[in-house]
Amino acid sequence: MKYAIGIDIGGTNTRVALVDENYHVIVRHQFPTDAEDPEKTVQGIKAITDTFEVEIVGMGVSCPGPLDLINGIVLDTPNLHGAWHHFPIAEELTDATGYKTYLQNDANLAALAEAVIGEGKDYRYVQFLTVSTGLGAGFTIDKKIYIGSHGFAQELAWMCLWKGGPSHGSIYPGGIEAISSGTAITTRAQKAGLNVVHAGQVNNLALEGNETAMQIMDDAKEYLSNGIAALIETLDPDIIILGGSVALKIPGFAEEVEKRVKTKLFESVRPFVKIRKSTLGEDSGLLGAACLAFEQAKD
């Protein structure tokens, strides 16, 4: 039996998982990420991987972006600071652990997991979107992540769909993340005077007939469906898979988005629209990281 290591470096915690070739998580560990000093996090990962006494083919790692995926470097991510900026994480982890390490963003790795073992495993062209705190996406062709010429393919958060639309953080006004993500839904509701702390509560108010909440939820679904329709028209995927708390926990959200998407496409395209919810849960990123290591080992 061969194994791979999946790593998820977050702004708060780092998770490390040992995964077998049947994509079962054998053991997982978690420790606080040092948001200022990447070397401490590298050594924390090494301390864990040193305890694995099995044949390991490599490591896949996700890290907050933006990332230089071609060279395995963390760029100027807002969630990690100091020496993390322009840190060659893939090379440093390879040198520290002795295992070849491959860097990807979390949405790309979740897309890969869906394509290899999830809802997309029976298809060639798999589009994934996570609609949660933020909005991310990944696209795979024949179980390979498509990253584009510079590694920035599927960076959809800034996809501008609404002239003069809402914004949050650094997102361009009218960007899809500023309309359809859980943070955007909640922030817009709070600014409108609603007493809410998450998107599910906004949806509940909408179901109760609150007109402001209804408009915010309608915007979230409408502009997300516009973005997905554009992806279908551009990429013609076999399946679109939605993950993240907004898509998975708000009743009827994914189904309503699929219904709206179909109205925005040529009639001949509509029968091929297939939008499904992810079934991989919170381990999708770790499993995707392991998938990446296994796939690279085969190559």
Written account of the structure:
With 299 residues, the protein is α/β, with parallel strands linked by helices. The protein folds into 2 domains: 3-108 and 282-298, ATPase, nucleotide binding domain (Nucleotidyltransferase, domain 5); 121-278, Nucleotidyltransferase, domain 5, CATH 3.30.420. The chain is built from 10 helices and 12 strands. It has helices at 38-49, 89-97, 106-117, 177-180, 182-191, 199-207, 211-235, 245-249, 253-263, 284-298, and strands spanning 3-9, 13-20, 25-32, 56-62, 67-68, 73-74, 101-104, 125-131, 135-141, 144-145, 239-243, 275-277. Strands 3-2-1-4-7 form a 5-stranded mixed beta sheet. Strands 10-9-8-11-12 form a 5-stranded mixed beta sheet, sandwiched between helices. Helix 1 (38-49) packs parallel to helix 2 (89-97) and helix 6 (199-207) packs across helix 7. The longest helix has 25 residues, at 211-235. The radius of gyration is 19 Å and the shape is globular.
Explain the layout of strands and helices.
Blueprint: E1 3-9, E2 13-20, E3 25-32, H1 38-49, E4 56-62, E5 67-68, E6 73-74, H2 89-97, E7 101-104, H3 106-117, E8 125-131, E9 135-141, E10 144-145, H4 177-180, H5 182-191, H6 199-207, H7 211-235, E11 239-243, H8 245-249, H9 253-263, E12 275-277, H10 284-298
Parallel strand pairs: 1-4, 4-7, 8-11, 11-12
Antiparallel strand pairs: 1-2, 2-3, 5-6, 8-9, 9-10
Helix pairs in contact: 1-2, 3-10, 5-6, 6-7, 7-9
